[in-house]
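Minutes, methods subgroup
Present: GH (chair), OT, SY

1. OT presented the first of two proteins processed in the latest run. Sequence and structure tokens recorded below as shown on screen.
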Amino acid sequence: GMNVLFIVVDDLRPVLGCYGDKLVKSPNIDQLASQSVVFSDAYAQQAVCAPSRVSFLTGRRPDTTRLYDFYSYWRVHAGNYSTMPQYFKENGYVTLSVGKVFHPGVSSNYSDDYPYSWSIPPFHPSAEKYENDKTCRGKDGKLYANLVCPVNVTEMPGGTLPDIQSTEEAIRLLNVMKTNKQKFFLAVGYHKPHIPLRYPQEFLKLYPLENITLAPDPWVPEKLPPVAYNPWMDIRQRDDVAALNVSFPYGPLPDDFQRQIRQSYYAAVSYLDTQVGLLLNALDDVGLSNSTIVVFTGDHGWSLGEHGEWAKYSNFDVATRVPLMFYVPGMTTSSVSQGARVFPYLDPFSHVLGLVPQGRSKKVVELVSLFSTLAELAGLQVPPVCPETSFHVALCTEGTSIVRYFNASEEKVEEEKHECDDSYRCFNEEPVAFSQYPRPADTPQWNSDKPKLKDIRVMGYSMRTIYYRYTVWVRFNPNNFTADFEDVHAGELYVVKTDPNQDHNIYNNTSHGY
């Protein structure tokens, strides 16, 4: 069987060359894409770290994990669900976790779900503990805990940054696996571009400020229901943003500062790209590129000023859409001859290749499908589809495998026929991605971004097809986890073709016979 290298990036929206972004420099991820099937319409099930990660690592939706915040462990609070790494471990793989894979803390039992999910205790970079410290030098020479935080790495505690340490550890583990000839599932979780935007300062050179524009729609849309808006509290708490004293909840950030955030987000993505490049280059070095499946994705997106919003915490595409690509030797690429280099390291300061994806699927897909998809690609038995209520079922998934989309090139999409046996939930109609987001109230308040379970009063259920995004904000009871679809507080409907940025909510101009 194939090894698996599973790369998950924190808060990465698809601002990548291989997704058509003209500004960002991401040569190593683009090179991976050029050997992969790339999904251009992939969505997370909730736009916040812990719920999204628990969802795709268990293959269950947030209503089944019952995790909408950061404060419960699914095995105790919902059901003893098997995870994707656990399933690989039970099938003879050595499973390894480096960096941020599960969200740390109570939501993964303060152990990243070890020993259930992992063969050895997960690795966390020691420099992680300084992430939110005052390590950003201001114009006055003093140190601050800023949002925008280019740094001199040699001045950092330990002379390093967390993602550099994670890459080093992942490379060390690849060498151990090679030496021991062990079949592995290695998950590597990168922190950047999660805030603070702390990255080596030389990456700023790639993005002169005069090349950085504002978001195409940097204003709060006129017909946006207040319940849908996220007031970006985590950003307001950084020293540099706090100093701007913007009004709550809608007060726009000054244009020049918006450009600086966007510049630093891009710079952090290019820094991330170098780490991914070093990791994939090491896969070549140990001679495992021809026997390892590589998956690259993010846990959710991140608003960069669109709709007057920043951060995640919403149901918009900018918050829910993620990059997703699969490199499968012999399937997405012709088989690689032993010793041939697939992933030579590309320096973003000199390489601008403009590589295009090997294959691109425009099918709408969900991260909850990762578990069944990776099982199928690795030749393991695909876990059964969950019954309607599955709290008592340890092994099942709520996301069907998307391997059936791998060979459907763009031209063939129209006439494509699915061959399905009955045990397979199979859709001939266009697929749908579901996301959801909880709110404590109908108008933005201090805890609107991250309400605790007991404070949730409204749940925004959202569906995305290739044609539209449709969201209803309905009454939610956190005591018995029920949503009342008869009690709709607000709705949103955006037509993808005429309104790709989701600025013109036409919910109230349409009849709702859905």
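2. SY then presented the second protein from the same run.
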Amino acid sequence: MPPPKDVVKIAIQMVGAIPQLIELQQTKPLASVIKDVCDAWSLPNAERYALQYADGRQTYITESNRRDIKNGSILRLTTSPDQEAERLYIGIQSKNVDVKTDSLKKLASLSQDVTFAQEFISRNGLKQIYSIVEEGNDTGEMLAHTLKAFTELMEHDFVSWENLSTVFIKKIVSYVNMNAVDASIQQLSLSILENMVPTSRLLFEVVKKEVTLDRLLTHLQVTNAQLQLKAMALLIALLLSASDTERRDMMEYLREKNIRQFIHKNIIHSSEPLGDEMAHYLYVLQSVSLNLREHRMKMSMDPYSQEQRDLLQSLRQTAFELESEAAAGTFSTERRRSLCAKEFRKLGFLNNSNPAEDLRRAPPGLLALDNMVYFSRNTPNAYSRFILENSSREDKHECPFARSSIQLTLILCEILHIGEPCSETAQAFYPMFFGQDNFFEELFSICIQLVNKTWKEMRATQEDFDKVMQVVREQITRTLSLKPTSLELFKTRVNALNYSEILKLRQTERLHQEETLAVPVLELREKLKPELLELIRQQRLLHLCEGTLFRKISSRRRQDKLWYCRLSPNHKVLHYGDVEEGVQSPPIESLTEKIPVADMKMLLVGKECPHTKEKSSGKQNKDVLELAFSIVHDVEEYCLNFIAPTRYEFCLWTDGLNVLLGKEMTSERTQTDLDVLLSMELKLRLLDLENISIPDNPPPIPKPPSNLNFCYDFSHAEQ
């Protein structure tokens, strides 16, 4: 008979004693449980003891988390958090260097526990930490333990970062700015400053002033990958917390210092593989850089601005330089105006008498004008060839440069997500972005020539403008999905993907769709579905057995803490636990926490998850909502909360958990995988019917014959 739900069988250890095997009554007060354990070992003063997990993070057991204890858990009887906090509070003030160092080391370890942290902070323990940092000149092991303990204590959000003194902050800054300091101390100092920056405008300004961009660039150029990562994290925190003007100035300074070339050569193309965290920071840097164009994208052209009018006129003058000079000397004002209108029409403006009207639509606003001017100034030959080639064509076949440029700029803004907030978890950056100065403008210059090429291939007229731009969008997105490493490679591939290739791809997709819509094929699909769905279920469970590395994300920042979760090979238990950075696939024995599949009640996703409800409901958390899911388990309905590293992992895990719960797989990935498998299976089954049309209805069954005399009577033969 299974034990009641409020009773768990556990083991309790103590150094120098024989372990006890007990049945823990969850309804019994924890103090009474500890007293019974102490009595069994003849230990007085039970109030001085507490229970904690023997493995993993060794969290203290409290009334609030005791329901997390599972059957088979191993606990340890140890000093209570208040006693330990008091002992370490005294220990870190010791005059004996060894005692002080050991106390700080122990403090750094125990401070991860919220119960201990609360006890230590309530004794004004942080004040002692401040004193050690502010008054000490040590830069060795003792300081490293002190900074680690401070970081862990602040992680619990009991104390505001704004309470830090100027002296303390400047001391932390000095460790970042000093050369002869241990790398571990610099890493911790950079991490502390990174946490500090987003919390208030005042702290941002202090850090920005004290830690120069030059200093951060110096740290980025070291060979120590962790130090490089922390420097990048602080740089990104400063950029995200800066005002628009400050961000623009910082990015301009970084551009002057050639950070792009350094990242491209020493980080992206480093011998070491790029970690998830660094990939995210590169994505943010790319996003911040591209978003500098947002204000131009949203700004309509002002027809009364002399600067903007000069830019517009420069387009005409570059294309028709000789004609313009001749006209200036011989024609009247009215004739010159008429000639200008004609030239603007040749440039492809819809409103040739007042071309500024074409640029009043925002987006793309003035960004389209900037792109056209950049193209005309940096590739004048290609620009002139585009304009003159089209102005000599018949009216109905000329490709309108200006109209195409405006629409192309809008397409590129949508593809590159210009004007959208940075995602908290995305890692999708384009390596070619860091391989080219003026990436957006150079990309435009390649794509506007692609527009002209595609226009000619389609033999398009003005009525076909939208169709041409749809093809160009498809050419760009298909090529970008291949992740070319340089703009030159992008140019080669996008030009190779000509209109005829696009037609072939579309035709293949259409034929495939038509084949699969025939009635007999649809019936065959339905018969194959159960078998293939079972195959997908097995794949999902296999993925859960392999396990995934998840990252803990708070509302304040991306966390460095990692945990791993995997399903047991017999599909009966979910194992999970904290792991260190760099661990790819920990053995199942090292994952100390467990959830029996039989105890799982339901799966929650997105806004239903408790850990998303705790967060602020800002637009920056939208991507987290799309990756969040929770498992509700036990009678008390406790939750194990996840934030998947990618949408792909989210789909596989939610599908796998639904399979374990005996429910349908609901992710979009299931439908995609099913379509792919059905397509492959159907093609194999219909291979012999190639070029044979499949009728919608089966052939009619012939009428039965008038007699059955042609049948042989076996009964006579047997006699």
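Chair's summary of item 2: Residues 519-546 form the longest helix (28 residues).
Next meeting: continue with the remaining queue.
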